[in-house]
Design goal:
Oligomer: single chain
Largest sheet: none
Radius of gyration: 26 Å
């Protein structure tokens, strides 16, 4: 470990970033990917040098297995083309099937190596703990020892990204990258290696390896995007997290107001922490002319849980949809279960393949977030809500057809507010499950919000753990974040305000930028004296 902080919010990182930008733009265009690869490996090593071995395993295994798949596909196609006159249809089919099995073997081996590495490093102690729990029913005196392995930095993100790559190569959506350095950069590009977004090779290769000309406007917009991310993280998320930690660590002694504030602050902190990281990462890439995919689309404006998860951590949701949900939904097992269900419940049977896929996806989503039954239950909780929405979708459509709510402006607004409040409530329960140390604590915290209790210590705890000025500033600034979301959603129809803001005259643009910088410096890292925390999703 380094003797100093090297995270995004450290001064050391800002120096590193400035050096990388200068080196990147002075490097000849055709060799810039080499500069980026060296910078990315240096960043990764400084963040966690012990993790280098694990990302190297992923890079090497995926690179050579993918090359083998593409080579096999080309050779089999060429062989059939060369011998098509002398081969019967049955022989051609048999040859293709044999070649496909070989490619599938390469893909499976690559996935098994990486999933096994992820499972051992992330879930070994969780598995041992559960085994010990079962064994203690029969022999209380015996238990397996815990391994206490460390979690390699960003392993959940780059392994998923690598799996998507090898599957796309197998499906023929893209050819394997033949340049080892370029492939290594694709997996370890430093703005996304720790927390995503989870990118696709065919979507990123032109932008990541392209020979960009310097674009001043795009460069400055990248810096502004970074500033917006630092504002969210330092001024809002970190300011509130001290009280959030206090709340979840002292569930038994909280008043109902403190319980409510713990969840309210976590709503704010969770969004600003993760979306702030994404803004910084996307902004860093923009300063190098590289475009990373958006990962948030104003999720707190959602009117259903399904919509929320299409707006929050979008690249993870898309990954699960494309590589887990769709293959499962059309698998032989899923279709077989669906066919059997139709005989008993014709209407529900049609939805069984989708329901089966959703159960697996949300179980894995919970497990992906952490080695704890809290996370698994959290995933299944959201899965159950979405499954209910899927099952009752026909009734929902009939309800709208009969009531004509959506056709009348006033009733539609009232109904939308009701749906939004319902979604926020369900999300609140999910936030408790996600953050509470135990399921017992989650239940206590939920109950406490609706119970009467003594408020004598609430003011003292708020002042000691947070401070009223800090709280007011953080919540006021979050209102600004929500205002931006509302403008983008309803006025700009989904477009980013940044792009419109940048086109404004200097006398409009610069005063607001100066205010943003002052807020970051004065209320953020350098001025407030508050403790600061690593980004939440780095633990996954």
């Amino acid at each position: 470990m380094l003797p100093f902080d090297f995270g995004y919010t450290s001064f050391a990182f800002l120096v590193f970033f400035a050096a990388v930008i200068i080196l990147y733009w002075i490097t000849p265009k055709k060799f810039r990917y080499i500069t980026l690869l060296i910078a990315s490996l240096a960043f990764y090593a400084m963040m966690s040098w012990q993790s280098l071995f694990f990302i190297a395993v992923t890079i090497i295994s995926m690179f050579f297995f993918a090359k083998a798949i593409t080579k096999n596909a080309k050779e089999s196609k060429a062989y059939i083309q060369e011998h098509k006159a002398e081969m019967s249809l049955e022989e051609k089919k048999a040859y293709k099937e044999k070649a496909k099995k070989r490619r599938k073997l390469y893909m499976v081996l690559a996935i098994v190596i990486n999933v096994l590495m992820l499972a051992v490093m992330k879930y070994a102690d969780f598995t041992i703990g559960n085994l010990n729990g079962i064994i203690h029913w029969f022999n209380p005196d015996f238990s397996f020892g815990f391994w206490h392995l460390f979690l390699p930095l960003g392993i959940s993100f780059y392994v998923f990204q690598a799996i998507g790559y090898i599957v796309d190569v197998y499906w023929g959506k893209t050819e394997a990258e033949t340049n080892f350095a370029k492939f290594a950069l694709f997996l370890c590009f430093f703005p996304k290696v720790m927390q995503g977004p989870i990118v696709r090779y065919d979507e990123m290769k032109d932008s990541l390896f392209g020979e960009h000309a310097f674009d001043y406007d795009y460069f400055v917009m990248g810096l502004i995007r970074m500033g917006w991310g630092y504002f969210k993280k330092l001024v809002i998320a970190d300011a509130l997290f001290t009280f959030i930690k206090f709340g979840f660590a002292n569930v038994d002694s909280l008043s109902n107001l403190e319980a409510f504030l713990t969840i309210l602050f976590y709503f704010v902190q969770d969004y600003c922490d993760f979306s702030g990281y994404m803004d910084i990462s996307i902004g860093i890439a923009m300063t190098m002319g590289i475009k990373l995919p958006e990962n948030f689309a104003r999720p707190y404006l959602s009117l259903s849980i399904d919509e929320y998860w299409r707006r929050w951590h979008m690249t993870l949701g898309a990954w699960f949809k494309d590589y887990i949900f769709y293959p499962l939904s059309v698998s032989k097992l899923s279709l077989k279960i669906g066919k059997a269900s139709k005989k008993i419940m014709p209407e529900f049977g049609k939805k069984v393949p989708a329901v089966f896929g959703l159960i697996i996806v949300w179980f894995l989503t919970g497990l992906w977030h952490g080695a704890s039954w809290n996370y698994v239950l959290w995933g299944l909780y959201y899965g159950a809500i979405i499954i209910i929405e899927v099952i009752f979708d026909p009734l929902t459509k009939k309800f709208y057809a009969v009531t004509k709510i959506k056709e009348r402006k006033v009733s539609n607004i009232i109904w939308s507010i009701f749906l939004w409040l319902k979604t926020i409530f369900l999300l609140g329960v999910g936030k408790i499950l996600f953050m509470a140390p135990t399921l017992s604590d989650a239940w206590k915290l939920f109950i406490k919000m609706f119970a009467t209790s003594d408020y004598n210590n609430t003011i003292t705890n708020l002042n000691n753990q947070l401070g009223y000025i800090t709280m007011i500033v953080a919540l006021f600034c979050f209102l600004g974040v929500i205002a931006v979301d509302l403008i983008e959603e309803y006025y700009l129809k989904g477009e980013l305000l940044l792009e419109h803001f940048y086109k404004k005259p200097l006398y409009v643009k610069w005063p607001l930028l100066i205010l943003l910088i002052i807020a970051i410096v004065w209320f953020g890292y350098y001025g407030s004296g508050l403790p600061h925390y690593e980004f939440g999703y780095i633990q996954f």
